[in-house]
Amino acid sequence: MANASAKKTVVSNSAKIKRMDKMYLIVNGIYILFRFIVFYSSLSWKLVLGYLFTLTIESYIYIQLYRISQPKFDLQENLLSSGQDLSAPGLVSYMFDIIYVTWITHILSLFTNYAWWIYSAIPLYMIYTLGGKLIALLKYRNSNSNSAQPPTKSNRSEKMEKRKTKVKYAR
Prior knowledge:
It contains 5 helices and 2 strands; from the N terminus they run H-H-E-E-H-H-H. The protein has helices at 4-38, 45-69, 91-108, 121-147, 155-163; strands spanning 72-73, 79-81. The protein has a two-stranded antiparallel ribbon with strand order 1-2. The mean pLDDT is 84.
């Protein structure tokens, strides 16, 4: 069957997007219901700004995931592209992680305002990841600049060269 893998990717992406739709509505619905309606007396402008900030990030990433997962068809409804696989590692998985951290922060912040500190894990992880790559890049550059100079010989190799005698071949 032609494009079997692409068709599986379309089905998988569609299922993930449907689950994301449900969770997006559930988590944000619960937060709005309890924080803005039930516990209205404990609402502050900082909480509103925090929620709007995280909701904006979450919504932007969600829209990007939705766009890249959409299949493309030609005029005869033949599958041209299955869209990017949402179970692929890399940037897509980081985008899902940011959405999950946002949901955890929203739910836990209903119980304590200290839950907003969980969101600081995102930039800290970025610094950790990019910092490690930056250090590796600097080490690589330093090793290349050192290799441009002729290597110095160790004492042992100098002594071995002095002891070398020419091999004489007898006939």
